[in-house]
Amino acid sequence: MEQKGVKDGTPVGRRVVLGMLGFGVAGVAVGATLQKGFNRALAPVNQIGEVLPGAADGFRYYSVVGSVRPRPPARHKVTVGGLVRREQAFSMADLAALPQTRLTRDFQCVTGWRVPEVMWAGVALPDLLDAVGVSPRARAVRFTSFDGVYTESLTLDQARRRDVLVATQMLGAPVTHDHGGPVRLFVAPMYGYKSLKWLGGIELTDKVISGYWERRGYDVDAWVGRSNGRDDAPT
After folding, report:
1. 10 in a domain, yes or no?
2. Which of 64, 132, 145, 203 is the S-S candidate for 49 at Cβ 3.0 to 4.6 Å?
3. Cα–Cα distance between 175 and 197 in angstroms, integer?
């Protein structure tokens, strides 16, 4: 996921970051001094892990653990387990054999940058959940990255939205390693930190388990733009 970070274990909540961004906009209007202050305030957000240079596609690339070893698509599997009827490990071929969903949505980072109209493709998470069968006891879904550290969660209702993808393609091509490939999560109606990179595991749980960034002060429900998070979903 294109993410954000903290310094010395101090949480930088979403509202704080957005407040700093507002300060940055003011800085443009009233002078370079305020803008420099904004840059110093926002600097801790980029202190954790590795931040690679921005690319022509408009994304900034972040990792919570520094370098992450690439995983060849031919050897990669996404395991789905926990409170399901049939645990299964999905290869890239298995994912390609499931119904495919395509959508075009903006990618919005909580630190303020945005990439408009990104093309995404993959398996809608509800279709993947249907393939394994969800236990009646399940209430949430936990996601783990093969970087060994990064985690995220959604409620089961959120996970059943059709604009939540197990993405195998973006920008008209397979998801690259820097973008979190070969498979990543894309949660269209939420800020980018919910769209976990390097997806390796999906677990159905009986409650929401706070993810990596939520344990550091970020919102569990990270809706962009509207509090109820209801956007038009793709068909």
Report:
1. no
2. 64
3. 10
The residue whose two tokens read 């789905």 is: 80
Backbone angles phi, psi at 120, to 5 degrees: -125, 150
pTM, two decimals, is 0.77
DSSP 85: S
Q: What is the CATH number of the domain that holds 111?
A: 3.90.420.10
Q: Residue 70's pLDDT is what?
A: 96
Helix axes 14-30, 32-42, angle to 10 degrees: 160
Q: Tell me the three state secondary structure of residue 56.
A: coil
Name the band, by pLDDT with cuts 50, 70 and 90, for residue 111.
Answer: confident
The average pLDDT across 90-115 equals 96
**Candidate from 61-70, 106-115, 134-143, 154-163 with smallest mean pLDDT:** 61-70
In a domain, 151, yes or no: yes
Q: Residues 22, 118, 51, CA angle at the centre, nearest 5°?
A: 60
91 to 1, 101, 150, 183: CA distances (angstroms): 20, 17, 21, 10
User: Is residue 155 a part of any domain in this protein?
Assistant: yes
The secondary structure of residue 160, as a DSSP letter, is T
Angular region, 81: left φ>0, alpha ψ -120 to 50, beta rest: beta
Token couple for 159: 């996970």
**Domain count across the chain:** 1
pLDDT band with cut points at 50, 70 and 90 for residue 195: very high
Positions of E strands within the chain: 50-52, 61-63, 77-82, 88-91, 101-108, 114-124, 140-145, 151-155, 164-170, 173-174, 184-187, 199-205
- The answer to whether residue 25 is domain-embedded is no
